[in-house]
Design brief:
The protein is of the alpha+beta class. It has helices at 15-23, 63-72, 142-179, 182-222; strands at 3-11, 34-44, 50-59, 79-89, 94-101, 108-118, 126-136. Helix 1 (15-23) crosses helix 3.
């Protein structure tokens, strides 16, 4: 028996903002069980798609995993490492991520897939499609354990979505703080003054050069003898 489930969620933000937040999702206070991430491969293909692979380290700490640890004698509360493969297609506006744990594979396998695309009805919103597949093996009561783990995964999915919202708000606050900073205004004023001074200096140099050229021309006009004729053979 395999636990399989689907879910959808609509973000009231454009696809670009949601994808940026998804890429910067960890760490965030909504998902403290995620200990860290490490990108170990990233490449851009001929079609402009960005392919990435990273390791996500987390802890499966909940009542079900604690029960499983006592029931089967395996400590599932230790750090779990998963490999996540993602494809970001900016042309088609699609961001797909697939992950699978690579420890405890002899007992439990959790496959998760997330896809972010613009909402067909509202281009300023983003649709997240999420799928879970939980498979238990070499254990007693596999059906019960799969259902327990799958239900837990679904319930914690809302935390991940809250994490996306947290990052979006954090990015917005960073932009607002930078644009409203007095230092930014001072830098802009300095840049404006510098540009004005440079333009004035160039204008003064051009004026002096023009006056000098005018004087030289007048001197040649008034004194034709200053012009040396080429020697004749």
């Amino acid at each position: 028996m395999v636990f399989l489930s689907f879910d959808e969620h609509l973000f009231n933000h454009p696809w670009e903002k949601v994808v940026e937040a998804a890429l910067r999702k960890y760490p965030n206070p909504e998902t403290p069980n995620v200990l860290g991430t490490d990108v170990y491969e990233r490449k851009l293909d001929a079609d402009g798609k960005l392919h990435s692979k990273r390791i996500i380290s987390s802890i499966w700490s909940n009542s079900y995993t604690e029960f499983m640890a006592k029931f089967v004698g395996i400590d599932f509360t230790k750090t779990v490492h998963a490999i996540e493969c993602s494809v970001l297609d900016p042309k088609e506006k699609s961001f797909k991520l697939s992950s699978k744990n690579y420890n405890f594979l002899d007992y439990i396998v959790v496959d998760e897939t997330l896809t972010y695309t613009p909402d067909e009805k509202d281009p300023n919103s983003t649709l997240l499609r999420q799928q879970w597949k939980v498979t238990c093996k070499n254990l007693s009561f596999t059906g019960f354990l799969e259902n327990a783990m799958g239900t837990t995964m679904m319930s914690t999915a809302s935390k991940g979505r809250q994490g996306i919202e947290f990052v979006i708000n954090q990015v917005r606050e960073e932009v607002d703080r930078l644009t409203s900073s007095p230092a930014i205004g001072e830098m802009q004023q300095i840049a404006t003054n510098t540009l004005t001074n440079v333009q004035q200096s160039i204008g003064d140099m051009g004026k002096k050069w023009e006056e000098s050229l005018h004087e030289e021309l007048q001197e040649f006009i008034n004194n034709p003898s200053l012009i040396t004729e080429p020697a004749r053979n």
